[in-house]
Amino acid sequence: MSRHDSDPSCLDRRQFLKYGAGAGAAGLLYSSGLQARPLSTQARIVILGGGAGGMAMANRLSRRLDGARISLVEPREVHHYQPGWTLVASGVWNPDKTMRPNARFVPNGVDWVRQPAAGIDASNRRVELGDGSWLDYDYLIVATGLQLNYQLIDGMTPELVGSHGIGSVYASIEGAARTRDAIDAWIAQGSGKGIFTAAPTPVKCAGAPLKMTFTTLSRLEASGRRDAFQVEFMAPGAALFTQPYINDFVKQRFDDQGVTRRHHYRLSAIDPQAREAEFTFVGPESEFTSHHELREEEFSREGERKVVASYDFIHVVPPMSAPDFVKASDLIAQDGPFRGEWLEVDIHTLQHKRYPEVFGIGDVIGAPINKTAASVKAQAPVVEANLIAQMQGQALSRRHNGYTSCPMITGIGKAMLVEFGYDNDFAFLPSFPFIDPKDESWVAWVMKDRMLQPAYYAVLEGQA
Fold first, then answer.
1. What is the mean pLDDT of the chain?
2. DSSP secondary structure string, 183-251?
3. Which of 222, 318, 323, 383 has its CA 20 to 30 A from that of 256?
């Protein structure tokens, strides 16, 4: 028996109970220079977005800057703990557990502008608001998060989630709950085919499509009728995950659990009434696998095919990008792999490459990895230090190493704590001496289920 197939050990549990309230909590809630002396300034600072990145920066800067006029542009009254949505969609959490009032996190002295941003005029240092008014700034922090582009899949809308066998954990908290219900209905059916997809673009929480597959497999196995269900995973490229070891692990585990992997398949259309999904296949001919339920529909060019797959349940992952108003601004990347789709920043300093008074944080930035809440935890002290250095005319000395973390759920009750960064082919950057990033464990599951949410709120409050 391999170490990955074994039950989590009692030693793991003893070590976790011994260190969890001490070293473990310290690792999640590390101090990051919050006692630094405040800087006196009358600068106008606008923060776009009140998600994890924007709220963290509002709290940090309200303490570090004395006299600054800080505006937080965020229309939503409710803050969503989105890392919990996979647990909702998997039937583990109640949706209410993921929601808190935004008023709980907005610091005193920060002007909360309860409107959406509609445009950025970078040359004149101003932001257009939803009502057509303008907000001037001396420094701008773009923390808008990203945009879900369901419309790029013909026939697909967020409103379809929960009906016609369609699920999508990304759509909303309501969509996560309806995804849970759609999986329930499929399992109750007693047999059938489920298709799990991934997007051809960077996505927030890149592990979520894999987690949804693994938790659903757990539920199918618990039903006692696993052999009656077909499970397929359609990947738009050759890889399933950025980190090389985890990529290989997931591929092998899918194979071991009877998941049919199909690579170079991009979801391009869906017919809800017929419960059919169209995929565009682009890839090596040797990787095209015919199947009695995959029908070739057309040839659009050499090496590209449109195939249709029937399903009883499908998990849809939409293409993602920066919000449209960011894409329409001069702040969008103008060349390279993020051109036209993501905010242009130096991936280490998080300063805009052409507008030095602009910084980015969170999902909106163009970077090889980094679309997780754990990334925000690592980025926030970098943006704070470098923004203050820029205000003082000093060199930007703080650097982000690309740290990101994914508690990779591999089944209900077990997970792998995957932490890595930019360097050395996305090598592991483990934080906890008692957790092996290459092993599944009950410990990593408990961290995901119970410990990471309080740590997340500490990040929002600028305490971590």
1. 91
2. HHHHHHH--EEEEEE--SS--SSTTHHHHHHHHHHHHHHHTT-GGGEEEEEEESSS-S-SSHHHHHHHH
3. 318
CA dihedral 158, 159, 164, 165 (to 10 degrees): 40
Closest CA relative to residue 138, chosen from 156, 125, 151: 125
- pLDDT value for 282: 82
Cβ atoms 342, 179 nearer than 8 A = no
Residue 208 β-bridge partners: none
At residue 181, the pLDDT reads: 98
How many CA atoms lie within 13 Å of 126's alpha carbon, on the beta-carbon side?
A: 8
* Nearest CA-CA partner of 345 in 330, 363, 362, 365: 365
What is the greatest pairwise CA distance in the chain?
A: 69
SS3 state at 294:
strand
pLDDT tens digits, residue range 95-115?
A: 999 999 999 999 999 999 999
The dihedral over CA atoms of 270, 276, 280, 284, expressed in degrees to the nearest 10, equals: 150
Please give the average per-residue pLDDT across 352-356, as a whole number. Answer: 98
Q: Residue 382: its pLDDT value, please?
A: 98
- Strand-by-strand arrangement of the 358-360 sheet: 111-113, 69-73, 44-48, 139-142, 358-360
User: What whole-number distance in Å separates Cα of residue 300 and Cα of residue 280?
Assistant: 10
Contacts of 92 (CB under 8 A, 6+ apart): 215, 412, 449
User: Hey, which residues does 113 pair with through a beta bridge?
Assistant: 73
The mean per-residue pLDDT over the stretch 131-140 comes to 98
In angstroms, the CA 306 to CA 299 distance is: 7
Residue that the structure tokens 């309230």 belong to: 21
Sign of the four-CA dihedral 323, 173, 116, 376 = negative
Distance CA 70, CA 421 (A): 31
> ∠ CA(186), CA(192), CA(194), 5° rounding?
70
Residue-wise pLDDT tens digits, 307-322: 999 999 999 999 999 9
pLDDT band at 284 (very low <50, low <70, confident <90, very high): low
100 three-state secondary structure: strand
- What is the C-alpha R_g of the chain? 22
> Terminal CA-to-CA distance of the chain, rounded, Å?
40
Decide if pLDDT at 16 tops 60.
Answer: no
Residues 362 and 53 sit within 8 Å (Cβ to Cβ)? yes
Banded pLDDT at 430 (limits 50, 70, 90) = very high
pTM metric for this prediction: 0.92
Residues across the chain: 464
Q: What is the per-residue burial (b if ≥16 Cβ within 10 Å, else e) of 17-48?
A: eebbeeebeebbbeebeeeeeeeebebbbbbb
Mean pLDDT of 10-33: 45
Tokens encoding 91? 């039937």
